[in-house]
Write a structure and sequence with these properties.
With 369 residues, the protein is α+β, with helices and mostly antiparallel strands. Helix content is 19%, strand content 27%. It is built from eight helices and eleven strands. Strands 1, 2, 3, 4, 5, 6, 7, 8, 9, 10 and 11 form an eleven-stranded antiparallel β-sheet that branches.
Amino acid sequence: MDIPEAVNAKIGEPQYEVDGGFPVEHGYIWNTCAATENGNPLYWDEAAAAEITAGPIAPPTMLSVWFRPHHWSPGRSEPAVPLQVHFDLKEELALPEAIISENTITFFTPVRIGDRIRSRQVLRSISEPKTTKLGTGRFWVLEVEYLNAADEVMGVESYTAFGYRRPEAAPDEPSTATAGEPAKAESSEAPSIDNQASAPSSPNPANPPRSDKAQLVFGDVAVGDSLPSLAKDVSATTVVLGALASRDWRPMHHDYDFAVNRNGTRDIFLNTPNQAAWFERFVTDWCGPRSRLGRMTFRMRDSVYPGDTMTLSADVTATEIDDVGCAWAELDVTLTAETRVATTCRVKVAIPKDAQDNPWARTGSDWQP
């Protein structure tokens, strides 16, 4: 079937430009950090944030949190969904199933407490018909642009999706794909039983401890270096906390019956933005709070379920100092669930050149992620 002319006309045109609905606030930031046990002092320690980022900021990977609609609001009869263009395409192209296979996030101006984030969605491309092991359909690329009140671009998120029809799918047959979610899951870190018994209570956000994590500089990093791995057990609580923190209300992340009987998965599973938050925590645990994420691309191949142990590992694949003097490291990160490779991720992170350098101070053309 040809692409309808009305759909082709939307390519490159901004759609669904909306205000996030509420200002960026610290409560959601602490929820996200708690869900990934991220102790980066930028998000807990006002003095550290004042010194490094000229005041409190949100974790870069929280970009999508600020454009996800409330599950319910007065006067609305139907649930709102993020990525509305994605759901529109499923209907307009008569492709009832869809997965998101790849996600790229490029980070620009930091998101600060009190910002009101505006987003708009842009359809970039639709492929010719393709047949994969899932069925026959089309790939499309959708971008979400995030801006603040001053029209500064906070970040751009790109999704590659595959909308399809399953071969010989019966009308009542459970779907094996999630609506607007990849066939993957995220993992989270839960302490062992022994650690639970002796773990201290959570720090008071008003007076948190300062991080003792070492800060790397560019000379400390070389191609071939391996990062310390992070292995964590995943529970149902882990999955639900991650979905709640990222404002993702889709039932496959909290409703066992829906996940198993509607989606055909073995259990609920971790969602996309929470997985991005885990990658951020893993990388910045290694390189330190003065390092700054520039770009993250991840490809999702499998899901992470309660009962799995997720392990994050990574190697440094490239280092460079760019034309404007910013020092970068590139990493290949692998997330495994038990013995399954669930997700692969390519991360570009700015590392201070020396003890006096601060990548967070870069703005405009001096920041080229």
